Amino acid sequence: MSEALPSVAFLGLGHMGGPMAVNLVKAGYTVTGFDVVPAALEAARAHGIATAGTAAEAVAGAGVVLTMLPSGKHLLDAYRGTGGQPGLLAVAPPGTLFLDCSTINVDEAREAAELAVAAGHRAVDAPVSGGVVGAEAGTLTFMVGALPADFAAVTPMLEVMGRRVVHCGEHGAGQAAKICNNMILGVSMIAVSEAFVLGEKLGLTHQALFDVASAASGQCWALTTNCPVPGPVPASPANRDYQPGFAGALMAKDLKLALNALESTGVAARLGPLAAEIYDTFAAEGGAGRDFSGIITDIRDKSAD
């Protein structure tokens, strides 16, 4: 006889969380959602997700509390409670599994896990990669920080929402893997974009440079999957006027998290901090809502004629 699926409180039903919750419902999970944005609640209900009036109502009786929130402060405030209201850790049934899929600072993830365990619960951090398209298709990658038993318990649920689930270590390790990966991505996208603009100045066609680099030592995901110029990779956002995808604001956020980690650990990094500065400027100057590969337009605009 198969084991019953745990009931899920899903807090944060935005562009990523909404589709993830839908996939859980399709797989047979009982999901009660909550979001502070009324439109997100309406969209969730339209896709068959039951919603609650408050986060505390959603959590009552849940076996798993899944959070997809904007920042570590939002997560810690939700766990602890604010404004005299009890936090989620206080209202959840004993032994609840708190699964956080937000992207936050490593130290905040570890603090959240410590709070959950101290309150008699279990904790898993599992940030995601794959963007809105991956959330909708159920093809996300989850980078998981958890004790082995908790990883085993949460894996079936993550496999509903994603195609790849990687156990990176104990509490905070999922966040560590996410920010390291996205620092590589941010740096490489800038390098690929600079190379294409240089190629333009030297008279190379986009296709010629792509044909060489994609089959040579310059090959990378930023080139072959998310190519920043239209044409060589038809599915890349460059062919849709840089509609995200993965927005510039999110890359700026993730590189800020990487910068925080670099500073706290004393790593003598130079490219990571520079990439964080470049994307912070890009987001502030109109790139926040464009795909992060749109950084090429900023490089091109600021290049000498």
Briefly say what this structure is:
With 305 residues, this protein is of the alpha/beta class. It has helices at 17-26, 38-46, 55-59, 72-80, 88-91, 106-118, 131-137, 148-161, 173-201, 206-213, 221-224, 248-265, 271-287, 295-301, and strands spanning 8-11, 31-34, 50-51, 64-67, 97-100, 122-125, 128-129, 140-145, 162-169.
Structure commentary:
The protein is α/β, with parallel strands linked by helices. Strand 8, helix 8 and strand 9 (162-169) form a beta-alpha-beta unit. The model has no long low-confidence stretch (mean pLDDT 95). The relative contact order is 0.09. Helix 1 runs parallel beside helix 7 (131-137). Helix content is 50%, strand content 12%. Strands 3-2-1-4-5-6 form a six-stranded parallel β-sheet, sandwiched between helices. Strands 7-8-9 form a three-stranded mixed β-sheet.
SSE order and pairing:
Blueprint: E1 8-11, H1 17-26, E2 31-34, H2 38-46, E3 50-51, H3 55-59, E4 64-67, H4 72-80, H5 88-91, E5 97-100, H6 106-118, E6 122-125, E7 128-129, H7 131-137, E8 140-145, H8 148-161, E9 162-169, H9 173-201, H10 206-213, H11 221-224, H12 248-265, H13 271-287, H14 295-301
Parallel strand pairs: 1-2, 1-4, 2-3, 4-5, 5-6, 8-9
Antiparallel strand pairs: 7-8
Helix pairs in contact: 1-7, 4-6, 9-12, 9-13, 9-14, 12-13
